[in-house]
Batch of 3 targets.
Target 1
Amino acid sequence: MNFNSQKLFVQCLSLFMLTLTISALAQMPEGYKDTRVREFVTAKKIVWASGEEGITNLENLLKAGNGQADLVGKNLITLDGSKNPAFVLDFGKELHGGIQLVTGMFEGKNPIKIKITLGESVSEAMNSISDSGCTATNDHAIREFELMLPWLGKIEIGNSGFRFAKIEMVDTDRILKLKEISAISIYRDIPYLGSFKSNDERLNEIWQTGAYTVHLNMQDYLWDGIKRDRLVWVGDMHPEVKTIQAVFGPNEVVPKSLDLIQSITDLPGWMNGISSYSMWWLLIQHEWYNQYGDLAYLEKHKAYIFGLLDELSTNIDKKGKETLDGGRFLDWPTSPNKEAVHAGLQSLMVMVFKTGLEFTTILDEPSKKATYEKTLKKLQKHVPDPNGNKSAAALLAISELRDKDKVNNKWLSQDPLSGVSTFYGYYVLQARALAGDYVGAMDVIRDYWGAMIDLGATTFWEDFNMEWAENAGRIDEVPAPGKVDIHADYGDYCYVGLRHSLCHGWASGPTAWLSEHVLGITIHNNGNAVKIAPNLGDLQWVEGSYPTKHGVVKVRHEKQPHGSVKSDIDIPNGLNVLD
């Protein structure tokens, strides 16, 4: 090969390698695009301040900014570090995201150090993790930051759930010039297609609060809490999914989260290490299909669905009693009551194998039908006692292991607010609806979920006990002497004190329940039919909407003088109405 030939060969080889490199780069993963939006929120109130003699123009933080530093520096907020200035801002409602600070020109161009503490309550924002006995944590999301602020610039911090932020100077020998502070709200920009409005403003606010609670948790995946428990807890997802169906329709966050938890859970393991959570995964898959009829999606999970059902069938003794291992969990308040946990798990097993029978038809697996029928009959022979526990009793009624009216009369309607949890309260409401006790269920919604709103909540909490409300201060006020600090003083299990999440999606049950039972809207036939059967209870009128795969159903129901209900119904094309 002569020189020219060699040169041509090298050039060709180089071109070939470059082509390969470009091709390889084109096939490399590019990460993912964030479809959420960022909205900047101005503080609504200055809740508390100290070292006021070292603060000027603090009220300017209540004026909307533009996120841009400038050379003019009009009406800047001044913080004199020698006076130990600190203050707490209230952004008006629970948010997911962080904080943006814009600075002006201050003496000495070296950055100035401050401390920011985020809180879901004023109490949490005012407590530092380093404080003796403080129960606040940085678990899952950092809520406490020390950071350097630039001269004439901007900085952003945080990725948590909060409503309040405490700002305090760390550098005591500097004077800080601040232009603005905004909360960064990060959320999915999706319309509220579902709605609920009645002559009872308390129920209206509760419906909206439940919807907003879940909306905040619809982040990268469907989380249970935006401060803590920023994970896919598949059992916790069930009430959230029911709320999403009633408010937002078929959002991608649900299948995305179901796919994730299945992909990281190899059989015979239980999802999240909890046997009931694997059962809830099956129930959610079934309900999602019934609502939207996406057979192609369901078929992707066919092998896992039947593999999981077969694994569950090995956890039954000769008398039909469940013998599930792993984490045996329903909800937190039920945990110490082993008899109740068993009753709940037995009920879930019955519910799951009823669903399994339907899967054999939907997914064309007739060879398993006889086996599942036999398993179901075996399970139905063992009927446990709920041992006085409302959560377990509700599942016994829903699974039809016990008579719905007897369950309601003996356990659910007695001392109705005692033993209700934010998670399984949804199933208590469902069981009371099965017994036709709509007024009793609505009273529980008003009194139990409404009590959180009375205490300043803008989202529903991980747990709540009515006894906590006695002599309790509001979460949006500085804890007062002689008053109970409801965030710091209560909580249990993994959510003691300030670790307690005040935005937990599993607590949204009333939103789904009111849409289903009071508006009376249920979807059937894989999303192709709707049944309208309102139950107004003690309401005079109710109106609202419900998203379906064919469009939005709109209804208005109004009681007539003689007691009947007049309904105006708007049905989208393609959706059949069932009698």
Target 2
Amino acid sequence: MRILLRFWPDIRPRAVRYVASILFALASTGISLLIPVLTGRAIDGPLAERSLPGLLAITGLVVLVGTAEALFQLIRRLLTAGMTADWEVQWRHRLYRHLQRLDVARHDEWDSGQMLSRATNDLSQLRRFFAFGFPFLVITPVLVVIGGVVLALIHPVFALILVLMALPTMAGVAWFNTRYQVASRAAQDTMGEVSTSVEESVQGIRVLLSFGRSPWAARRFRLIVERLRDHELRKVRLDAWLWGVVMLLPQLAQAAIAGVGAWGVVAGWASLGDVVAAVTLMMYLRMPIEMFGFLLSDALMSLTAATRYWELMDIAPRITAPEAGSAGSTSQGSPVLTGTAGGGTVSDAGGTVSDAGGTVSDAGGTVSASRGSRGESLAAAPRTAPAAEHSPDAGVLEFSEVVFAHEDADRPVLDGITLRVAAGETLALVGTTGSGKTSLASLVPRLFDVTSGRVAVDGADVRALPLPHLRSRIGVAFEDPILFSSTVRENVLMGAQAVAGEDGADGEEPPALTDAQVWEALEIAQAADFVRALPAGLDTQVGEQGLALSGGQRQRIALARAVAGRPQYLVLDDPLSAVDVDTEDRVQRRLREVLSRTTSLIVAHRPSTAALADRVAVLDSGRVQAVGGHEELLEASAAYRDLMGVHA
């Protein structure tokens, strides 16, 4: 059970209360062992002597013992319930915070259902175990020992029978332990697969219905749940064997005590009261002994749950703040770790992190920010830190000999990219699928880190900047936008940049934008008209992942979120792919107002989007093939003309 000791820092502040709850559990169960002793005394004493006062006195003691047992049980429950519920909240919160700190590549390595089952089923299992299973797992052997001592006081022969019962029980428990752990782990892992399958089918219901593939999904799900059934049945078979042993042996011991006791009464070395007390005591011991089978299986499932929880918690983020030792140096080629990039799989991160050191705000003075001590609000402060305001590199985005590769890939996705985007300039990235456009854009907010080379903002390597400080200055919108199951207003406000702790701890609320500023962002994204038409306007719930809206509507709200905070840097990965040409043209006209004050990187697939940029970089196989203006490249680059669908 060493894995459970890792929860000790959480338990320690309430250790006294927890130990008290265990002692009350022991007292409530242990005091009941007095009843068989009192019964035996009643038979040999008041009943044999026909003494009514003596019988009433023993009866009163039995009532007193029963009342004390109920009172101790009540106190134990009151001590335990709230305490273990608080631990479950603490563990869930800590796991959620940890998941927020993990980089995108780490999330890509795990099925979401496996993460979900660890955060829900496993932690609920641990809460139940610490509330009930662990206390009674501790006190059950103690009760058996106390019962054995009482039996020995009645007569040593009765205690010997109890010991003879205990030996095969221990052997059965040892056999059960090794096999049940394997079965429990397999079942809990398969439950994670079930969660993943359900989540995928719900999120992909439009695809399944459109292609008529619901029967395929049902068959696939059935195979998983049948595998789960097989694992659960194996657990049931093992449980059945254990329960058979722990239920049969106490009954045999009880029968043996009755038989040997009857012989003792006839032989004269035991009284009738002693035999009744021993048999009754064995009946009381049967319950904790039989419950031990349940407690053991519960303990093994809890150990598996704890192992799965710490497996996730032990994953170290590969992209961390420089204080954690991930970046330290701003020189080229500094050792960093890489992740797995995939177009469309990266969620929209715009506005989820923020500045923890230095002042932040928009260039036009429309948002407030915090600096220094958390809570000191500065309205209309410059977006950059004061030290960078007069730097020649202020607002400059630079890629220097950037190489990025998947961990297990044979060749890099990006190979020696060198580009410089001047302050206030817009650079479009164009290229065929797989040319590295999305990967390059993802390096700016450090969703991934370079394998070698350097990405710099304001002349500083992004790996040398605190993550909140870096990301608070960057607005991001991706082709496949993710909205949260909240209102339109709250989704847009995510772009206002909250102040978060370096370790991913809870931060302050984002600077409050007025409704006028929210509407302004929606106007830029040409989303204001359809938002006004929604049932509750800004307060309309967009549904899970925004699926209550169309693809184009989700993209425009995500774009409004990206520009709401007037970021110093803007990274747009084909953010208008799902809108019609007329809407795209209106968005681009308004977007030029933002881009004129922002250093922007745009992944473009349409000529109109590329024409929006000051310069265009053509990527092919992870390398820059050409850089120039839109019209210039149309004349000079055949590859660019092919990409834009323009033929000479």
Target 3
Amino acid sequence: MAVRKSRRAMLAVGALSTGLLLAVSGCGTSPTNSSQGAGSSSNLTPQKGGTITYALPAQTNLNWFLPITNAANDSVYNTQLVDQLYKPMLWINNDYTINWNSSIAQKIVANSQGTVYHVYLNPKWKWSDGQPVTSKDVLFTWNVIKAASASNAPSPWPFVGAGTGDIPNGVKSVVANGPYEVTFTLKKPANQQWFEYNGIIQITPMPAHAWDKYPNNMTQEIKYLGSNATNLMFDTVVDGPFEPVSATPNQEWVIKPNPNYPGHKSLVDKIIFQYEASNTAEFAALQSGNINVGYIDPTQLGEKGALTSKGYTITPEYPFGIFWTEMNMYPGAKNAPIFDKLYVRQALQMAIDNESAAKDIYKGYAQPLFGPIPPVPQTKFLDPNLQNPYPYNPTKAKQLLEQHGWKEVNGVMTKNGQQMKFTMIYASGSTSTEDQAELMKEDWAQIGVDVTLKPMPFSTFLTVTANSKNPTGWDLAFGTGWDYNGPGFYPTGGQLFKTGAPSGTGFSDPQEDKLISETHQPYPTEQQTMQNFFQYEDYTAHVLPFLWNLNIASLVVTSSNVHNVLQYLDAATAFPQMQYWWVSNSSNQS
């Protein structure tokens, strides 16, 4: 989310781009929730035709179009488009149940030890050229994942999911038992839901008959696929509801309905994923009617009348995810030795005024975070006994640094020739993100931490922060977060916080590793399972692998003549089922 991974998302922008959950009040909804009003098909007969123009977050390019990805391109926005072209092995509903009707698999039967998983494929799925989706495609995809996960995999690999959900090294074998059955056998027992939601879910079958050009040379095969990953028009054989039409970087990416799709067929003529230079440009495009599914930045709420007067509906939607500030702890990073010290991370956290940011910048549409599970929306994964271990207290933060030998010299904390002077990069394009970065800079200045801000486009941000081999040019990174929408559906944090995590920043802690591993084990009762999960959650909240910021609602803007948007967000995943969206003409608007 191939990888239905918990993908990185840009902070507080994107109409549906931050893992939306239909939970404005903090309560989850069922996958059959049907929102009324704009975005709903209430009292209307769906009709054929029309174009939906879907606004991407500001300065966000789509640049990867394979169902499996590397770290530098592991974003929600790439996957939102890819998921319209390819069906995942498992599609997850808002309530964390599996939607078998939208999954390649029609059922999974696991043994009680959690070591063997029989995956039965639904024979209804076909490739757009008429060939069936079979176990051959699953095995081809698995072999690509194994090859692309190797530490010596050629550029642009390795696969970002390597090491997550027991993929691939924890898997003893993957075998076909016929055209529509595949058996996964693990090397050791695993929590069954964890492996299904974090391991099997990473498989999105790819068309073996079209792409398996080098069956006897997997290194050559992954070079071939990697060289075509950035070309949308390479995807000529698909099994999803849409197929590609065109791709113009810094402009638009266009898809149209796949006429051979065996599921619910889209009625629209096409869907355009629209590049936006800024939030201001996107707002103007909404006003002019050039965008009919978009968003507004919280700083634009005072201007919302310009949209609501034209029939647009604005709906706040919270993700099941977390947003943070990363600390560059990669080996070789200039200031990694500073960030490696827990007391430094504690001081930095206590000097972040998340409450003020939520109130003043996000106008109340944000919830402060204090651990790896957001308090809103409500899920079983939030420990009800966990309290914020590091509330805002700059005085205490400064004292903590001084107790460890740091002294303020010309306004900057200094010790043994080291200075707390850091460069913080952030994802540009969002006014609220920039305002929050400025607020953190001011807060940290109070404790003698001198921060220089450096904005950059989202795709560049991902590339820079994912480069563990050359971790230079940044110390702190702000403006993104993580949607729990793939290996994170069972949100144990292995892909983020474990030593060597594919989407980490060099953080390493043996106790963290131990607690994460314990959440992966099968337990006889749900109570024991959650006890182990809460131990992991509480320790992670205290040890601060990242600095916790806010869980921010996206403010979704929907035109009155675009229907089923809110109903078919599949919001817990951040990947909407766009084939259910449709457009009415002005004479049929309600």
